[in-house]
Amino acid sequence: MRRDLALLIGTMAVVAMILGGASLLPAAERAMRHSDAKAAQAELPSPAALLSGYSTVFSAVLSGGYSDAASLISYLNSSYVPENVRYIFARFNSLFASAVSDLNQTEALVAEARGAIGVGMVAEARALAGNASASLWRANSTASLLRDSSAALASQLKVPQIRTGVSSVDERIAYLAQELSEVRSEIARVEAGDLARTVIAVELDRSEAWVGSPVTASGSLSAEGGSPVAGATVRVSVEGAPGEYSAVTGEDGSYSVTFPAPPVYGGPAAVHAYFPASGGYAGSRSADAVLRILWLKPALEAKLNATRAKPGDWILVSGSTGIGGSHGERVRVSAFGGIFTADPSDGAFSFAVQVPAGATSGRNTISVSVVPSGVVGPASAATYLEVYRIPTALTLTLPPASISGANVTVSGRVVSASDGAAVSNAAVLVRVPGAGVYSGLSGEDGSFRVDVPIGIAVPTGWFEVSATAYPAAAAYQQSSASSGLYAVNPSIAAVPVAALAIAYSAVGRGRARGGARGVSGKPQGLVGLGVGAGSGGKAGAGALGAVVSAYHRAAAAIGRSLGNPIGRGETLREFLRRVRGKAGGDAAEPFGELTIMAEEELYAGRVHEAARAESLLQRVLSSLSALRGRISGAEGRAVSAGGGEEPSEGGAGGRGAGNRGA
User: Fold this and answer.
1) pLDDT tens digits for range 214-245
2) Which of 84, 91, 148, 616 is most exposed by smallest CB count within 10 Å?
């Protein structure tokens, strides 16, 4: 029987090992997700995705959207490509970005040169055209290298459209070459005298003016020889103005334009006039006239009614612009990511701002500024508010120990650390190593309960659980705590226990083969009961309890009565099923109930009444006694009818006697 117990323990240890190993399979599968190169193929950029990106770049280049093209090339260059293609891919993108930069510079220089020749600035136009020509040459050289690189890249990535798409660079080079050629032709016409050169002058009716007050610019347009140019459109450009002003020259070539003094706060405004080339006359530009702008500078002051506040509190922002009267200016306050405005009254202002839930703890800047309007110019000031949150305290309560694979209840409270007041509706996230995150919500008294699993693979030892409380009220801080318990994993001890149990069983079998064979008459089976066979099976009953002892006596009696005792390794329930139909209804019913009581006491730890077990035993014994009486009467009648023949040694009586002898 001790050998049977050792085998049972060894088997259970091996099962525990298998279950523990099975729990690790999901993690192993995740770790090996990309061990197969084919599994990573989905992460490579598809030819369609690359072609879509580069097609957008080609279109941007053709339309002159160089900034967008450069940004997209940089983004595409960060895409993943196989290592053997990486160099070709990076070189292609580098050449493409360089060509786009040269095209952008060329177009800007051509535009400046056109503007310069348009106002008669021949020398400036010639210099700008020369710089544009050099930039265009660099773009053309880079485009040649780009074509070769695109052929190699298209071959490696199996995207032939990339090779044909770079023709957009060549098309833009051709367009800019045509534009530059036209500018050079304009310069040549002016220098050859094909266009009559002109001179334009401008002057202001005052040297200074308050913002918004009228200012008149006047002057004249004449040919290089001094003759007036009548009916020509001239333009006046005023620094800080939203646009240009135009006028038509009279018979004497004079013109006049009136405009409001621009809102240039902090410096003078430059004013000039120019004549775009027209009607056989070359363009010209005047020298700058300077206009001093007058305005009122606010002496802005701002303050808060508190230096510290928590989310949800209201603060009062007040102050003065230092300018009396009303001039249409407004005060703007920037606080916590929002903008608030107010209209000052005789320079004074005040309004309330609520500290939002998402305000950053610590020092927050509150900016106050005057929005310029008319003669009132800009001004700004800043003040500071310390945002704080009420600290909280989180407590955790766990059982001292748990078996790996079981659920554990984590409980605790969330309270204010300053006064101990309960913090309700706080979301509590409990983190369990290897099992994930579980959540709960604190009640009105601040308490919470969260059931979390302890993984079956958690080894024996100290097991730490951490939690963080996130209060619903923004005025409270979050808080964290950790605690632990001792985890007991039966599978950790399974290997040595299994080895010892199997070794012990092997030694026991060796001894049994070398010992006496006369013990075969002892009751077999009753695995784990540890009950001997002497004196009706009562040996050891006191150690295991009255219920188990009663069951053993009943099972031994049934086995003797049927000549077929419980087998080695046979469970209580299996023995019951085997003898239920043979023992008779009067014995089967109490024996079935007694079997269940014994199972529950052995394996579930449940304790039953000894008196009930003894009563069931007596019913079984009484039923078996009556059954044996009926069998003996039938055998006597059979002997009389057969001439008094004795039963053979192999008959039923022989079997019964043999078992009783056991």
Assistant:
1) 999 999 999 988 899 999 999 999 999 999 99
2) 84
**What are phi and psi for residue 261, nearest 5 degrees?**
-60, 125
What CATH number is given to the structural domain containing 467?
2.60.40.10
The answer to whether residues 160 and 50 belong to one domain is yes
Question: For residue 360, what are the domain limits?
Answer: 301-387
Cα distance between residue 66 and residue 73, in whole Å: 10
Statement: residue 259 has pLDDT above 50 = yes
Q: Residue holding tokens 């983190």? A: 431
Residue where a domain stops, chosen among 245, 265, 294: 294
Are the C-beta atoms of 482 and 464 separated by less than 8 Å?
A: yes
CA atoms of 479 and 271, how far apart (whole Å)? 64
Q: Residue 65: name the closest of 172, 210, 192, 201 by CA.
A: 172
| Parallel, antiparallel or unpaired: strands 461-470 and 314-320 | unpaired
Q: Is residue 571 part of a domain?
A: yes
Instruction: Identify the CA nearest to 413 among candidates 485, 486, 477, 479.
Output: 479
Does residue 514 lie in a domain region? no
Q: Secondary structure of the chain: what % helix, strand, coil (to 5)?
A: 45, 25, 30
Task: Label the pairing between strands 208-210 and 198-204.
Answer: unpaired
CA 38 to chain centre: 26
The confidence score (pLDDT) of residue 42 equals 38
Q: What tokens were used for 260?
A: 């409001």
5, part of any domain: no
Q: Where are the alpha helices (DSSP H) in 379-532?
A: 494-514
Give the Cα separation of 370 and 468 in Å (integer).
45
Alpha carbons 572 and 526: distance in angstroms, whole number: 7
Same domain, 185 and 254: no
SS3 string, 224-245, reads: CCCCECCCCEEEEEECCCCCCE
Q: Where are the alpha helices (DSSP H) in 78-216?
A: 83-118, 122-157, 161-165, 167-192
Round to whole Å and give the CA distance between 480 and 393: 8
66 and 136 in a single domain? The answer is: yes
Average pLDDT of the chain, as a whole number:
81
**Whether residues 382 and 403 fall in one domain:** no
Tell me how many domains the chain contains: 5
